[in-house]
Amino acid sequence: MTSKAFQDYYPDEFxxxxxxxxxxxxxxxxxSYWDGDESVCLFTPEPHxxxxxxxxxxxxxxxxxxxxxxxxxASAAKIRELGLxxxxxxxxxxxxxxxxxxxxxxxxxGKVIELRGKVTEIKExxxxxxxxxxxxxxxxxxxxxxxxxxxxxPGN
Amino acid sequence: MTSKAFQDYYPDEFxxxxxxxxxxxxxxxxxSYWDGDESVCLFTPEPHxxxxxxxxxxxxxxxxxxxxxxxxxASAAKIRELGLxxxxxxxxxxxxxxxxxxxxxxxxxGKVIELRGKVTEIKExxxxxxxxxxxxxxxxxxxxxxxxxxxxxPGN
Lengths: 156, 156
Prior knowledge:
1 helix, 33% strand, Thiol Ester Dehydrase, Chain A, 156 residues, homodimer, six-stranded antiparallel β-sheet, alpha+beta
């Protein structure tokens, strides 16, 4: 892992996301990194992010983490595909076309949650990422996101 | 619409969800109601729930609203299928087996967001709900949730 996360390279105007924007002071500010061919994000939810049952995590947060980690992974994968290092040019920013989550077992509160992403398709403006969500090395949810690159401004 | 929402009938031990639990003081506390055969939920996000671009809503919140509105709709649909009115017996609580969201266009900030749900399948412990997310009567996202009923305790 490197010390600077994928999200730290987003252009300022696209860095306001509640889930992953470094400029959103009230947001979750998740951070994603390469770990070999996989992307990884570690996250410990605050106590109020419970599901209906207080010992479990809120499903919407699981979907949110998958979405934002997927967008970050797509952005970094596009840079890597171009043969560049992060920071060599402004990061491509991706938006979500579709999001699918399968909830396998309850995700516990009070644990470090690990998301691991694998790029399964990268083609022109589209990147597909498969993501697992684990706690204590047990997979609690699986997700797939289809990400589409926002066209870059001339000069970027 | 009635004045008491689906979520107001959840048993206390399942009313802690960040998205829809009436006992989660830091949560969104969304409220869902019948409007004929459809379920409806109106929600105005706080300003920090932006997406990467500040004028649009955070995709994770859209997924979260679909998830919680879907769980509430499943619960109310089960009560209705039994020929009962809300409150006649403790509400069945549902958990999400899978969640799918197609993002069609950016969901604007500063607007009332309307979710409308339709039950497309109800079979024993499984309920499938299709949901649209609209602003200014334009559909911004579509979702499908597969909900599974939590087994009730004896005596409920």
